[in-house]
Write a structure and sequence with these properties.
The complex is a heterodimer of chains A (749) and B (178). With 749 residues, chain A is an alpha/beta fold. Chain A contains 24 helices and 28 strands. In chain A, α5 runs parallel beside α18 and α6 runs parallel beside α14. The two termini of chain B are 25 Å apart. In chain B, 18% of the residues lie in helices and 26% in strands. The chains are: A alpha/beta (749), B alpha+beta (178). Bound molecules: iron/sulfur cluster (3 copies).
C-alpha cells in the first residue's frame, strides 16, 4: 500500500461532544428512535433500578443499576436471582460505573485523513462514517469477494456485526477467545467427551471434595461464579491442589502447592495418570462403562512414574503420589480444572487432553462435585432471509492445517492478511468490535504488518484503545450501561435468560452496536436482515416466543426456567452416548491419530531461558479485564499499574531493589516501551518473572493508564503455534532486565 | 446492640470488591477509600503463607478518635458504631492522628471520613453493609454481637480469631478469622 498507516494518538478530538449526562439530545440522523424511547422509560424508572448484565468480562453477570437523586447512575449491584453471580458482582463489575463516566471515552465518529503530510483523524457524522465503511466494503467485495472482509469481536455488540458480515457473504468472524485463549481446552474436551467446556465452565466446584488447578489462578482471575464456589469449597473443607510456578492467591488457599518448573505440566499429568492407574485409584465402573482406550493408555504411561516426572518437573515423587491419592479418594467429586486461558507452549491441546483423560479416569465428568451437565437456553432468532453461502472461508488460507479448529483463528486471519505467494487472496478489510487487537494478538510486528496491508480497518469501541490509532474509521460505541443488547442466554445449572437495558441515554455521540450494524446494513442494501425498527421490537418478539415479554424482563432482569429433566448429573449406570466417533469417552483418540497427531498425550521438553533470561509469565489481576479496564478510574484506584514479580535471589544477583523500575528486553531484542516496577517476592520461582496483562498503554488519550506499567504483549514476539488447532502459545518468551533507560542510552551513542 | 464485623482471612482473595462497592455506595471520591486490603506474605520459597485482610474502621468501644475530638463531631452511634458529624467538625485532624489503624482519611470537602458500617444508608434499612453484600467469597460477616444468632456471633463462636493492635486498648470490633 502506498499510504502506510501511521499510528495516530487520538488527541483532543471529540471533546466538543455532548456534556456528560447533559440534557440535550444528539441530533444525528437516525438516532431519534432510541433516545425518545429511552426518555419515556427513564421517567418512570429514574429513581428505581434498571436491569443489566455486565460487559466488563465474558462472565456476563446480571445486575441492577441504581441512580442518585439527580437520576445519574450511582452504582451497579448483582441480581440475587442470577446464577452467574448470585447477587454479587466482582470488583470490575461493581466498578463498571467508571467505564460510563470515563472522560476519555470515544465521543464521535472519526475518519483518518491527511493534513499537511501528517495523518490525523477528523470528526465525522455517523452518516459519513458509515458511508465510508460501506463504500470500502463494497469495493473489496467487487474486487476480491466479500469474504475478504473479516470481523474480530469480543463481547455482546459483536453479534450484530456478525449477522451483518454473514449477510454480505463472509463467515470470517474471529474471536480471540478461541486461538488466543481457550481453544485448546475446547478441542481437547470435544475429542475426549464429545463436548466443549465453553463459558461459564460447568465445573461443580461448590460440591467438590478436591479441586486441582493447573496454572489456573482463580481469585486473581475473577471469573465470578468460580471464585464464589471455590470459597464455598474452602468452607466445606475441600482439598485444593495448585500447580503453579508462582505462589498464587489460590496456591495460598491450597493444601498442596506444587511450584512446578514452567512448561513441564504434561509430565506431571502423565505421572498422575500413572499413579491413578497403577494404584488402581480410578473409577473402575465408570471407566469400563463409558471409556475406550484404557489398555492403550495404561501401556502409554507404564514408565511415566513420579520418579520420571520428578526429574522434569522438580516436584518430589512422594508429593505426586500423595496428591494423586487425594484425587483418587475424592473421586468422583474431584475436578482437575480445565483452566481458561490455556494457550501457553504450543502443545496445549495435548496438555488439555491429559487433563480431560485424568478427569475421565476419576469419573468426574457428569458427576456431582465434578462436572455437571449444562442446561442450555436458546431463543428463536428473528426471521431474516437466509445468509448467502460463502464462496471461501479462512480455512482455504491454511490448506490441510488446523482441521480440528472449531472456529475462525483470529491470528490466522491476521496472518492471511499479509500477502504471500502461496495464497490467491488475502483479507482486505477488518471490522474490529470491542477487542484491542494490538494487545490481544501476540507478535505485534506481525499484527501491524497485516494492518498495513488493509484497505479498510473500521474499529468500534468505547475507548481510544491502541487499535483505534491504526483505524481508518473509528466508531464510538456507547457502554453497556447505555444500551440494549441481545438477551443473555447460554449454559448454567438451570436454563436462564437475562436482559440488559439502557440506564442512561448514550453519552456524547456514541451509539449501540445493534444500531450501528443496522444502519450500516441499510447502506449496503442489506436491511432485510435487520427487519425490525428498534431493538425493543426484536427483543420483545423473541421474548414473546417463549412466553415472556420485554416488559416482564425489564421488571425482573433475569428469568429462570426448569430443566427439561432431572439430569444435572449422570444417573447410576445410565446409558450414555457421547458425541465422539466411538460414542464413548475417548482416552485414546483415533481422530487425533487420523489427523497425524499423538492419540495419547506425550511430554516434549520445551526450550529453556538462556543464561540471564527468565521466562515471561503473565496473568490476571482481580481489578482488570485485559486492557479493557485499564483506564477505568474506579479500577485504577485499586490497581494503577502492573508490577514485575522477581524472586529475591534473582533480584540480589542483579542488584535490583523492591519498587525499582526496570525495562525488559526479550529474546528477539524487543525492549519494553515503558519501565515496570519490580516486586521482589518469594512468591515466584527463580526461573521466571510474572506480570499482570493489560498495562503499558501507549495511547496518550488514555490519560489514566498511558505509560503505566509494561505490556506483556509487546514482549510476546515468539509464538508457539499449536499444530492441532492453531492456538498461539505465548509462554515461550524470555526476558532480561534493562536497568537504565534504553532511550537515554540510545541518545548517548 | 453491638455491631461488629468478621473477616475470614482464609477465604478473602484480596480482590478489593469491598473497596469499590464502598466507594460507589458511599460516594467516596476517586483516590480515597474507607476500606482497603492488606496482604501479608510470610516465609521463603517454597514454604510460604499469605494472610489477606479486608480492613476498615474497627468501631472501637474505647475509641481514641472520639476521645480526642474537641467538638463531639466524632461520636458513638447506634450499636456502638463510631460516626462523624461533618457539620460539627472543625477540621482539626486530631482524630486522624489518633487512630492507631489509620482508618480515617481527609475528605476533600474538609472533614474526616471513614467506614460507617453503612449504618444509616443500609443497615438501618435491613441491608448488609455494601462490602459485606458484594464480597464474592462471602468472607465478610456482619451483625449484632449481642444477638447469638447473628452471622458474626455464630462465626466467632466456631472459628479462631484475632483483632489488630489489641494492645492499644481500643477494644476493636473488627475480627479476623484465622
Ligand atoms: S465476573 Fe465481574 S466483570 Fe465479569 S461479568 Fe461478572 S461482574 Fe462483570
Ligand atoms: S471483596 Fe471479599 S474477597 Fe474481595 S478483598 Fe474484599 S473481603 Fe476480600
Ligand atoms: S478504628 Fe480508628 S477511626 Fe475507627 S473507631 Fe477506632 S480509632 Fe476511631
Amino acid at each position: 500500500m502506498a499510504n502506510r498507516r501511521e499510528f495516530i494518538r487520538i488527541s483532543s478530538l471529540g471533546l466538543g461532544g455532548m456534556a456528560l449526562a447533559g440534557g440535550s439530545l444528539s441530533l444525528v440522523k437516525g438516532s431519534e428512535v432510541i433516545e425518545s424511547l429511552f426518555q419515556s422509560q427513564l421517567s418512570d424508572r429514574q429513581r428505581q433500578r434498571v436491569p443489566t448484565y455486565c460487559e466488563i468480562c465474558f462472565w456476563k453477570c446480571a445486575g441492577w443499576v441504581y441512580f442518585n437523586e439527580d437520576g445519574k447512575i450511582k452504582k451497579i449491584e448483582g441480581n440475587d436471582n442470577d446464577l452467574n453471580c448470585n447477587g454479587r458482582l466482582c470488583p470490575r463489575g461493581t466498578g463498571g460505573v467508571g467505564m460510563y463516566y470515563d472522560p476519555d471515552r470515544l465521543k464521535t465518529p472519526l475518519i483518518r485523513t491527511e493534513e499537511r503530510g501528517r495523518q490525523t483523524f477528523r470528526e465525522a457524522s455517523w452518516d459519513e462514517a458509515l458511508s465510508y465503511i460501506a463504500e470500502k466494503m463494497q469495493k473489496i467485495a467487487r474486487e476480491h469477494g466479500p469474504e475478504c472482509v473479516a470481523l474480530f469481536t469480543h463481547g455482546s455488540g459483536g453479534k450484530y456485526f456478525g449477522d451483518l458480515l454473514k449477510a454480505t457473504g463472509s463467515t470470517n468472524i474471529a474471536a480471540p477467545s478461541f486461538a488466543q485463549c481457550r481453544g485448546p481446552r475446547e478441542v481437547a474436551f470435544i475429542y475426549t467427551f464429545g463436548e466443549s467446556i465453553d463459558s461459564p465452565e460447568n465445573t461443580d466446584i461448590r460440591d467438590t471434595r478436591c479441586l486441582v488447578l493447573i496454572g489456573s489462578h482463580i481469585g486473581e482471575n475473577m471469573h465470578n461464579g468460580q471464585v464464589q464456589e471455590m470459597s464455598d469449597a474452602i468452607d466445606r473443607g475441600a482439598t485444593i491442589i495448585t500447580v503453579d510456578p508462582r505462589y498464587s492467591t489460590a496456591a495460598s488457599k491450597s493444601k498442596y502447592w506444587l511450584p512446578i518448573k514452567p512448561a513441564t505440566d504434561i509430565a506431571l499429568l502423565l505421572a498422575w495418570i500413572h499413579v491413578i492407574i497403577f494404584e488402581e485409584l480410578y473409577d473402575r465402573d465408570y471407566v469400563e462403562r463409558y471409556t475406550v482406550g484404557f489398555e492403550q493408555l495404561k501401556e502409554h504411561v507404564r514408565n511415566k512414574t513420579p520418579e520420571w516426572a520428578y526429574g522434569i518437573t522438580t516436584i518430589k515423587p512422594h508429593i505426586i503420589r500423595e496428591t494423586a491419592r487425594e484425587m483418587g479418594n475424592a473421586s468422583p467429586a474431584v475436578i482437575v480444572h480445565p483452566g481458561r486461558h490455556v494457550t501457553w507452549y504450543g502443545d496445549d491441546t495435548q496438555r488439555s487432553r491429559s487433563i480431560a483423560i485424568l478427569n475421565a479416569l476419576l469419573g468426574s465428568w457428569g458427576r456431582r462435585g465434578g462436572f455437571y451437565r449444562n442446561a442450555n437456553y436458546e431463543l428463536p432468532s428473528f426471521p431474516h432471509p437466509e445468509f448467502p453461502e460463502p464462496k471461501r472461508t479462512w480455512r482455504e488460507a491454511f490448506p490441510g492445517k488446523y482441521n480440528l479448529a472449531t472456529t475462525v483463528l483470529a491470528n490466522g486471519v491476521c496472518d492471511a492478511t499479509i500477502p504471500s505467494a502461496d495464497r490467491s487472496c488475502n483479507f482486505k478489510g477488518w471490522i474490529v468490535c470491542g477487542t484491542n487487537l494490538i494487545e490481544t494478538l501476540p507478535n505485534q510486528k506481525n499484527t501491524i504488518e497485516a494492518i498495513q496491508n488493509l484497505e479498510l480497518l473500521a474499529v468500534i469501541d468505547t475507548m481510544p484503545m491502541e487499535i483505534t490509532g491504526w483505524a481508518d474509521v473509528v466508531l464510538p460505541e456507547c457502554t453497556y450501561l447505555e444500551r440494549y443488547d441481545s438477551i443473555r442466554t447460554g449454559q448454567a445449572r438451570l436454563p436462564q435468560i437475562a436482559l440488559r437495558m439502557p440506564a442512561s441515554e448514550p453519552l456524547y455521540d456514541s451509539k449501540p452496536s445493534w444500531w450501528i450494524a443496522k444502519e450500516l446494513a441499510k447502506k449496503l442494501g442489506l436491511q432485510a436482515y435487520f427487519d425490525y425498527d428498534t431493538i425493543e421490537d426484536l427483543l420483545d418478539w423473541q421474548l414473546r416466543q417463549i412466553g415472556s415479554s420485554l416488559e416482564e424482563m425489564q421488571r425482573i432482569g433475569v428469568k429462570t426456567f426448569e430443566r427439561d429433566a432431572d439430569d444435572l448429573y449422570f444417573a447410576d449406570g445410565e446409558a450414555i452416548e457421547f458425541n465422539t466417533s466411538s460414542g464413548k469417552i475417548e482416552l485414546y483418540s483415533p481422530d487425533f491419530e487420523a489427523e497425524g497427531f499423538d492419540p495419547l498425550p506425550n511430554y516434549t521438553p520445551h526450550e529453556e531461558p538462556p543464561e540471564g533470561f527468565y521466562r515471561l509469565n503473565y496473568g490476571r489481576g482481580p481489578a482488570h479485564t485485559f486492557s479493557r479496564t485499564a483506564n477505568n478510574a474506579n479500577l485504577t484506584d485499586i490497581m494503577e499499574e502492573n508490577s514485575l514479580w522477581v524472586n529475591p535471589k534473582v533480584a540480589s544477583q542483579w542488584g535490583i531493589r523492591n519498587d525499582q523500575y526496570v525495562w525488559l528486553r526479550n529474546q528477539d531484542d524487543i525492549t519494553s516501551k515503558f519501565p515496570i516496577k519490580v516486586r521482589v517476592t518469594e512468591r515466584i520461582r527463580w526461573d521466571s518473572v510474572y506480570m499482570v496483562h493489560g498495562f503499558g498503554h501507549d495511547q496518550k488519550r488514555l490519560t489514566r493508564c498511558y505509560g503505566k506499567g509494561a505490556s506483556d504483549t509487546e514482549l510476546i514476539s515468539r509464538v508457539l503455534v499449536d499444530p492441532i488447532m492453531g492456538g498461539t502459545g505465548m509462554r515461550g518468551n524470555f526476558v532480561t532486565f534493562v536497568l537504565e533507560d534504553p532511550a537515554a542510552i540510545a541518545a548517548d551513542t | 446492640m453491638r455491631y461488629a464485623m468478621a473477616v475470614d482471612t482464609r477465604k478473602c482473595v484480596g480482590c478489593s470488591d469491598c473497596v469499590v462497592a464502598c466507594q460507589t455506595e458511599n460516594n467516596v471520591p476517586i483516590g480515597y477509600c474507607r476500606d482497603w486490603v492488606v496482604e501479608v506474605v510470610d516465609g521463603t520459597f517454597p514454604q510460604l503463607e499469605i494472610e489477606i485482610r479486608s480492613e476498615r474502621c474497627n468501631h472501637c468501644e474505647n475509641a481514641p478518635c472520639v476521645r480526642c475530638c474537641p467538638t463531639g463531631a466524632s461520636h458513638y452511634s447506634d450499636g456502638g458504631t463510631v460516626l462523624v458529624n461533618s457539620r460539627k467538625c472543625i477540621g482539626c485532624g486530631a482524630c486522624i492522628a489518633s487512630c492507631p489503624y489509620d482508618a480515617r482519611y481527609p475528605h476533600p470537602d474538609g472533614y474526616p471520613d471513614k467506614c460507617t458500617f453503612c449504618l444509616t444508608n443500609r443497615v438501618q434499612k435491613g441491608l448488609k453493609p455494601a462490602c459485606v453484600a458484594v464480597c464474592p467469597t462471602k468472607c465478610l460477616y456482619f451483625g449484632d454481637l449481642e444477638d447469638p444468632n447473628s452471622d458474626v456471633s455464630r462465626v466467632l463462636k466456631v472459628r479462631k480469631w484475632k483483632t489488630l493492635i489489641p494492645e492499644a486498648g481500643t477494644k476493636p470490633h473488627l475480627y479476623f478469622l484465622i
